[in-house]
Amino acid sequence: MVVSTWTLQQEGLGFKSSLSCLSCSLHVLSVSLWVPSEYSGFHPKKWIGWSKCGSGLLLTSQFTKTRVVAMSGQSSGGGFLMSVVVHGDSALNEQEKELNQRLRRLYPAVNENETPLPRSWSPKDKFSYIGLSQNNLRVHYKGHGKTPKDAASVRATHPIPAACGVYYFEVKIISKGRDGYMGIGLSAQGVNMNRLPGWDKHSYGYHGDDGHSFCSSGTGQPYGPTFTTGDVIGCCVNLINNTCFYTKNGHSLGIAFTDLPPNLYPTVGLQTPGEVVDANFGQHPFVFDIEDYMREWRTKIQAQIDRFPIGEREGEWQSMIQKMVASYLVHHSYCATAEAFAKSTDQAVHEELASIKNRQKIQKLVLSGRMGEAIETTQQLYPNLLERNPDLLFMLKVRQFIEMVNGTDSEVRCLGGRSPKSQDSYPGSPRPFSSPSHKASSSQPYLTGTVQHYSHHSQCENFTYLWGEKRQEANKRGNFFLSSPDLSTNIHQLTDTISTPMFESFLVSSLSNDVDMEVDHFTNGVTESSSNGFLNGTSKHTTEPDDCDVESAQSKRQLCGGSQAAIERMIHFGRELQSMSEHLRRECGKNSANKKMLKDAFSLLAYSDPWNSPVGYQLDAIQREPVCSTLNSAILETHNLPKQPPLAQAVGQAAQCLAMMARTGSGSCAFASVDDYLH
Amino acid sequence: MQKGGSVIEDIMEVTATSRHYVDRLFDPDPQKVLQGVIDMKNAVIGNNKQKANLIVLGAVPRLLYLLQQSSSSMELRTECAVVLGSLAMGTENNIKSLVDCHIIPALLQGLLSSDLIFIEACLRCLRTVFISPVTPVQLLYTDPTVIPHLMSLLSNSLRTQEYITQIFSHCCKTPEHQTILFNHGAIQNIAPLLISPSYKVRMQALKCFSVLAYENTQVSMTLVNVLVDGELLTQVFVKMMQRDQPIEMQLTAAKCLTYMCRASAIRTDDSCIVLKTLPCLVRMCSKEHLLEERVEGAETLAYLMEPDVELQRIASTTDHLVAMLADYFKYPSSVSAITDIKRLDHDLKHAHELRQAAFKLYASLGSNDEDIRKKITETENMMDRIVSGLSESSIKVRLAAVRCLHSLSRSVQQLRTSFHDHAVWKPLMKLLQNAPDEVLVMASSTLCNLLLEFSPSKEPILESGVIELLCSLTQSDSPALRVNGIWALMNMAFQADQKVKVEIVRCLGTEQLFRLLSDPDTNVLMKTLGLLRNLLSTRPHIDQIMSSHGKQIMQAVTLILEAEHSIEVKEQTLCILANIADGNTAKDLIMTNDDMLQKIKYYMGHSNVKLQLAATFCVSNLIWNEEDGSQERQDKLREMGFVDILHKLTQSSDPNLSDRAKTALQQYLA
What we know:
By secondary structure, chain A is α+β, with helices and mostly antiparallel strands. Chain A has helices spanning 2-9, 14-34, 44-47, 55-83, 90-106, 290-306, 314-331, 335-345, 353-367, 371-381, 385-388, 390-406, 410-415, 445-448, 457-461, 463-477, 487-497, 502-511, 519-527, 530-540, 564-588, 592-603, 624-638, 646-664, 674-677; strands at residues 121-126, 130-133, 138-141, 152-156, 166-176, 183-187, 203-207, 212-215, 221-222, 232-238, 243-248, 251-257, 265-270, 275-280.
């Protein structure tokens, strides 16, 4: 997808690559239409008409909440995995590493924050006759073992997540003990542990002494061979068709149970003294080739998706897919390609070409960081748009502030002596679905249509502390961003006159040390009218030598491009933003998103090198994308066009369905990743 | 009447247009001929009637002529090959006509061209002709330059690779074909194609290897050392058996490994057999696959594990195979009969194949392990299915059923229980009445087991006039049938009533008995001797038989002892002699035969302990006390120097022999 959209920018190649886009959307659709068939409520017919009716949107907004949860899980999943490592021993760490690697490889669709995988037997969820050792992987019997009443079981720490698709663990019989009354299987939470697996409701087991399978019953059915010391018994749960089969020494013994309930735990039970078994939840390679079995099911599921029956509606599908592609091209303002595509597929474009070009122009400005011009152009072309959307305007202004800090906004660039037209610090095009560097947020913009919110509260809370450190470092290096000696006093004076001190507090806190400041310029900038100040600044600081490209020379990056006038302009702009925020709050009530946005943006000033600060991500060009798409959506909405391209909606929908399937126990979600269909 | 008229008109019309197409092939203007061929090509695609018409109207020789003319343009020659290829796609009759017009040599000649497009068109047509069952595969081998040329064309394009490998895999039917292809470097030339980017090429190359390796040690031994892109061929095959590969590919790769294993190129305990090939073949038997695949899977699996009990044990517990096979008998299913005629037809067509494959696999599974046999006979309606299988119309099913029965008949327990309960001997006897040799071999072999003395079926079989049948088998041209016939008689005679024994001798006739004793097949000889030995047991029987046939029997014994025979044969013969020596009156036949006594003496001093033991047994019986005339016999043998030999034998290192010698000497002391 990334590649195809990139080539679309090269308009000459546009049409050809849009065909690959078409085939991609075919896949996308097949996913999104197939998945809901598992739920009768979401029959494709009901929401296919996304272009006009809003049912697709409705679903999307319903899913938004859960979506965010899933995302945060993904982003911090690695941290969770690491926290499991509790042993100091390096060999054990090695084993733990291998385990994590294997589990990730086997069950890539499992979100371990929501549904952790079993890694060992639970020391809490066992009968007292069971002893555990060797990191809770070895189980031995320590009861009397006289009658079946002395049977004892232990469950794994967690139930098997449905998103595994196919789950597998093995148990090696270390010793069959006195009679070899061992049972290997599955049980639900709360099933009596003073029993062997299989004897009770929601409990399933395969017993070594007679080779019988026990399906929630005290009497077994002939199933497989007996097993004893030295044998490795595997248990495989297929969460797609809810069956289970066992293996003995790497050989499948065939289906043992069908219609299994969800959320079963791996379970073993022992009954006579001397019985010892070891579990392998992925710590070691399995004897049975489970990955081969999983390959088969992956192929089956994918074939099911590929061969989703469309019956008589083939023509309908084609025109719908063409519409999707066309709307996608229009949405992202690929004019020439959209035109060519519409022509060759005999479609009408619902927007005038001029309008598309206008949007393209604005988008280019946003994506190259020239926010001031972008806002201006928007106001010219769509006069009432930003007035009616104060929150959007505010967001754009905040972005403008960030771009000022970055030194890319047109206003500060002029001050820095660079021609705003000659540079484009953002080389790419909008990256709508997923970019490798930006995985966690992949499809969110299309679900919510708002800016992404990264959880870095901790960073903000620790702000003062961090700031102190940074400050000292900066002093030592002597390259503090403001060189005026008296600025701090001036700012202190200023704060008295300004009622809400958010912006000032950042400045104050950052300037509380003895640093050189150029008070005059600063006060000038504040007191003079904005247009004048702008001009003044330019005249005064044209001699500033460094004018390096932000992207290419990181080490030389300087605040606002290094221009003093630009810094002043920025500070002035910050104040305006501050007051705009207050105004907004008075008019429209509190808005925590806006407040946070502002706070994050202002936080940049607290660091001598904002690019390498904890809030430095805001300066990344990629952060322009959500702003760009939000603005684009707003413009489209005023034209009564969908604010998201239906293609993106379909992708988001499919991703949501998969997440929902995982939660509701449909194992096939394990083998249908949306990413697989975005070539 | 009117209707009939219009049909004729239709035919006339079609023929007229076909005529026109053929006429255009004779146009003096080559450009018009070319256009004519192209039009013909478009007209025949997918139209069997049109194809038949053109063939009848003589288009083929003209097309072949144009194809072979060096004056024809390359384009024209290519189009001719394409049209011929299209005609070959029709019915089997079309193929026959094409072959009769000598299309094969013409096309093979065409392969010598330097034009790749033309070569590909010729190969495509050849492929279509050769994969038809009506084409004699020998036509590929008549010109010895063809195979090397095909090998050299393999590198030209993906198409030539696909067509040539397909031709090879269909035309390699005998060990000779295998050797020809092998000698022309088939392995080295085709191995790289296994990793071709084209699935069709990979698949056809794989099929080639399966036909090349089948029952061919030379090929199989070479294959295990072949590397493809740095990887052993066996590993390439294992990868092709991965469960996400197409079933056809998994199955064919499993066949390759099976054949290599059966040719002893891969050990049966190699993990690629135990953990990959065997499970793959078991999977192929499952219900989710096509009927053809299930048949092939079961047959290949049966072949793989036939000689190895460990594989049989593993397979018997894998994926409920024994129970899974029971499903093979449920076609056509009652559901298919009602709902879907097409499905019913399909099911019916495969029903026989399925049943025989299941029987074969059961036979292989149960050939060694008693527990597995028990598991098989306990499968739902198993014995009933075998019984009805024995009388099915399809020979293949009957043969497989009797093989299965034979395998199960090796179980003492089953002979005593299920075999008797289901009276399997009845259909078996019926089967023996008139059946082809291969069925007879299996059936009579099974009968041998049913006639073992502990088998409860023995009595009813005897009463059904089996002796005559068995005696007639001993006159068969087939050594296997003679063995089985005489073997069954031997089993029957074991501890049998006097009446039965007499009946056997009467029915068989001494002449036939002696013919069998000079049978070129050692097995037949051994079982005949065994029969004699069983006949000559218990004293009254010995005397009676010897009194009527003593002279001939002694003659036969002499002949065998004098001729070149294996130790086992001589031992068996000496045992017969020992039995004769146990008779009351029969003894004299030996005692009065000095020549025979010398022979016994000779064998007592033989280097082989078994023969010494048997000869000593014989002497011991002759000098046994408490019998009439024992004193005289002892004296005679002492005079002949037997006592000295016995003394020597008491010093033997073999405890059995020295014991036997001591017992014999004690007779003198008493």
